[in-house]
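User: I'm putting together a small comparison set for a docking exercise, and I want a reference complex before I start. The sequence is below, and the ligand is zinc ion. Could you produce the 3D structure with the ligand included, as structure tokens?
Assistant: Of course. I'll restate your input first, then give the structure tokens for the complex.
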Amino acid sequence: MVAELDTSKRVRELAVMLRQAVIEEDGSIPAGDHVERLIAERVIALAHDLGVAQRTVLDRYMTPDQIRIWARTLVARQHEAEHLANDAPPVEVDQRDGLLVLAAFGVCGVLAMRNADRHQHVDPMVVIKDALDSTVHVSAPLYQANGQPVRIGGVTLVVGRKVISMTVQALSNGWWDCTCSAAHRADGGCALQDRLEHELAVLGGWINRSEHLPR
Ligand SMILES: [Zn+2]
């Protein structure tokens, strides 16, 4: 259904509007069909929530004003992420924990691949890309440190935490299929998520289980 909407003329027009609005708000947006998919997913989610046809959402709930408000929200989130990256104090990680963190990125990537079609709440493609980037950015200093602890900070730290926390959130909310064979606890957790949360703590991050990602 997403693929069908992706190619519709209206979605392409809205994508042009959203790109333009983001630039006007002093933000940036990556090239490619990412924006088309963003719009298609929002249309599907809104149609579902409001109980109306996707066509109706496209006609009535995607006005230039609404696109501008959406762009403002996207840019605010971008700036917040940059702010976080500048503010996050670096963490010191020893060799053993560093290797566990690398393994955690691998686990997150595998889980994202397994759930490649379930991108409504947490986009598996984003997790896969960030997991690969994080693996490169953490493994290089670990290798160069020659057994000594390394400091991880800035964007590497923020993105690394995001990879693990997005994955745990997707699993605990049941948005993604988990690879553990056990039944999940009442809070949605399981042993696999506990391990990921431990590795997240190594990077100075944590999961707020009462907080769900905005749709
Ligand atoms: Zn599980």
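The longest strand covers residues 91-93. The chain has two domains: 2-86, 91-202.
User: Thanks, that's exactly what I needed.
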